[in-house]
Design a protein that fits this description.
The chain has 2 domains: 358 residues, Glycosyltransferase (Alpha/alpha barrel); 249 residues, Glycosyltransferase (Alpha/alpha barrel). Helices cover 47% and strands 3% of the residues. The chain has a 3-stranded antiparallel sheet with strand order 1-5-4, with no helix packed on it. Strands 2-3 form a two-stranded antiparallel ribbon. Helix 2 packs across helix 4 and helix 16 runs parallel beside helix 18. The longest helix has 22 residues. The two termini are 46 Å apart.
Length: 658
């Protein structure tokens, strides 16, 4: 969680009023603010046409990376020292580590941070290590960590395998018609778990330094693993799966396992197949790390061409400075590019501007045309989506694809037939991914088997990929921008879903961004796009946005709102969340209303001289309550879009006497 240095150089203003005034001076300042951001954003474009900025995560990644390097025998002292520097810098005063900027210490991050520093050679009796150990024990100790954390410790021989939920490779043999099978799990869980099943079966011995023990991290003599304790009720799904876990472990102790070799072969083939047409398994850090370890367990040494290729992909996530290395969880070029394009187009960049043409060309070249996991539940449509990363062909996602289509729509691409075909196929793909409840998930259709959230290794809080309001809103907005209206059956079902999901206050939950401000803004944009912005439930949402606007004119929401819904819409103002709030208000109301003027003024006053905004708090979500993100381009792209949108609507408002 490396924090950016706070920039103090602001755009000069002469005692700016609390309300933006759209007079000649105000409009001139607005234009200058937009132009500064346009220049800055254009300066970041890569020669190939895409945009990409850092995707920041918590120090657990550096901790896992140290562990991984030791297991593979690649723990070069200089690299370990730089990774350890990053971990130490992120330690909180109470001794623990948080999973987001400004958040409280979290058990798994704290246990991992402490152990990684022991591997790096820190003295366990050093003051910072004692504080870490005390904090880990106060948070519940090893007994209360999640399954994946304990799996790594078992893999290193530091705790017994009995403390880990069973992950037998036979899971991959379950037929697809069975109510529980591999493809009822979310895409990211598949990528994480399939390699773990091989490691669970093979149990390779990778001894770590004897000085790096973990016994002092247990808080009680009984060492009872919290997640493996049954419910008090006689029958619950949790108890059912815990009973199954005991049976799997009994099976594991048998000398004869009739399906084991078949399962290992199937799981191995699945991994090898999914390593093709992708830059690492799932192109995300945990799945890639697990896959490399699984390859090593299968007999591929660290320097084998296949393993070395996968290690190289993972090393691309490193950001190295003079004295530190930090890790990104993945690389977001498609996402960053589509948002940057939309913002620049809204800011008035000509539709044939070279920057937009280059980015459109790059996006067209990266449209996924090959098969993927999503086809298991949606086989009747041609592949035509986009992935989040550079290459991740098995996992195009609905959110990226919808944003890409909206970005491409605003480009006058010279090869019009090619553009038309790409858009038509992409639009057909995202519409076909609609779930039975009317919403959309991210990577799969109807991936909503809720009982899977009760299996013992589901404590990463991301076992399934159900419909969420923010994703439904993104697709609905995209459909609206391509001419779908409220009478279309798919739109009608999506609107019904959103009406069911609206909270009593009028807000919508944000699964992939923090949180209700993100979700509500997205839904309001979607409703505007399909002509429903004046409906009562839309206006109810706009009223909620007005009610949570901060006194400084900005909007902010703490990540803690995922744990405590009473905090929805509450928090320190940030540039990206202010932009989201402003965009939502503009979708449902008038550009001349006071709440809009205050939000505009906040963004004008808060801009840096280089065209950026500071944003030290995080506003991106990986897995609610487990993993959060800071998209470094959000603090520029979204404020630019919001201010440009305001300017354009204001001009139309004045023109038509609104």
């Amino acid at each position: 969680m490396a924090q950016e240095a706070t920039k103090t150089q602001r755009v000069p203003s002469e005692a700016s009023p609390s309300l933006f005034e759209p007079d000649s001076r105000g409009i001139a300042r607005l234009r200058e603010t937009i132009e500064r951001s346009v220049r800055y954003l254009l300066s970041l474009q890569e020669p190939e046409g895409y945009w990409i900025a850092e995707l920041e995560a918590d120090a657990s990644l550096e901790s896992d990376y140290i562990f991984y390097l030791y297991l593979l025998g690649k723990a070069a002292p200089a690299r370990i020292a730089k990774l350890a520097n990053t971990i130490r810098r992120e330690q909180r005063p109470d001794g623990g580590w948080s999973i987001y900027a400004g958040g409280p210490s979290e058990l798994n991050a704290t246990v991992k941070g402490y152990f990684a520093l022991k591997l790096a050679g820190d003295n366990p009796e050093a003051a910072h290590m004692v504080r870490a150990r005390v904090r880990a024990l106060a948070l519940g100790g090893m007994e209360a960590t999640n399954s994946y954390t304990r799996f790594y410790f078992a893999l290193a021989g530091k705790i017994p395998w009995s403390m880990v939920p069973a992950m037998p490779p036979e899971l991959i043999l379950l037929p697809r018609w069975f109510f529980i099978n591999l493809y009822e799990m979310s895409s990211w869980t598949r990528g994480i778990v399939v390699p773990l099943t091989l490691l669970y079966a093979l149990k390779p011995r990778w001894p770590l330094p004897s000085t790096a023990d973990a016994q002092e991290l247990f808080s009680t003599p009984s060492r009872r693993i919290v997640s493996l304790q049954p419910d008090s009720q006689a029958f619950t799904w949790r108890n059912f799966f815990l009973a199954a876990d005991r049976l799997f472990k009994l099976h594991e102790s048998l000398p004869l396992k009739p399906f084991r070799q078949w399962a290992i072969r199937r799981a191995s083939r699945w991994i090898l197949n999914h390593l093709e047409r992708s830059e690492g398994l799932g192109a995300i850090f945990p799945a890639m790390l697990n896959a490399i370890l699984a390859l090593a367990a299968l007999g591929f040494p660290p320097d084998h061409p296949l393993t070395a290729r996968e290690r190289d992909y993972l090393s691309e996530f490193e950001i190295e400075d003079e004295d530190s290395i930090r890790l990104q969880p993945c690389l977001p070029p498609v996402w960053d590019t589509s948002i940057a394009m939309a913002s620049l187009a809204e800011a008035g960049l000509p539709t044939n501007h070279p920057a937009l043409l280059r980015s459109a060309q790059w996006l067209l070249e990266n449209q996924v045309a090959g098969p993927g996991d999503w086809q298991v539940k949606n086989p009747s449509v041609d592949p035509a989506g986009w992935a989040f990363e550079f290459r991740n062909d098995f996992y195009p996602d609905v959110d990226d694809s919808a944003f890409v289509l909206m970005a491409l729509q605003r480009v006058a691409y010279p090869d019009a037939p090619r553009m038309k075909l790409a858009i038509e196929k992409g639009l057909a793909w995202i519409v076909s991914m609609q779930n039975r409840d009317g919403g959309w998930g991210a990577f799969d259709k109807n991936n909503d088997c809720a009982i899977l959230t009760r299996v013992p290794f589901a404590d990463h809080n991301a076992m399934i990929d159900p419909s969420t309001p923010d994703l439904a809103a993104r697709v609905l907005e995209c459909m609206g921008r391509f001419g779908y209206r409220s009478s279309h059956p798919a739109v009608r079902r999506a609107v019904q879903y959103l009406r069911r999901e609206q909270t009593p206050e009028g807000a919508w939950y944000g699964r992939w961004g923090v949180n209700y401000i993100y979700g509500t803004s997205g839904v309001l944009r979607a409703l505007e796009a399909v002509g429903l912005e004046k409906e009562d439930f839309s206006q109810h949402a706009a009223e909620w946005l007005r009610s949570v606007q901060n006194l400084d004119g900005g909007f902010g929401e703490s990540i803690a709102s995922y744990d405590d819904p009473a905090l929805k819409g509450k928090g320190e103002s940030t540039a990206s969340q202010t932009a989201w709030g402003l965009i939502g208000l503009l979708a449902a109301g008038s550009p001349s209303e006071p709440a809009v003027a205050r939000a505009v003024q906040y963004l004008l006053d808060d801009q840096n001289a280089d065209g950026t905004w500071d944003e030290n708090l995080w506003t991106g979500t990986g897995f609610p309550r487990v993993f959060y993100l800071k998209y470094h381009l959000y603090r520029t792209s979204f404020p630019l879009y919001a201010l440009a949108r305001y300017r354009n609507l204001l001009a139309r408002h004045v023109q038509f006497g609104g």
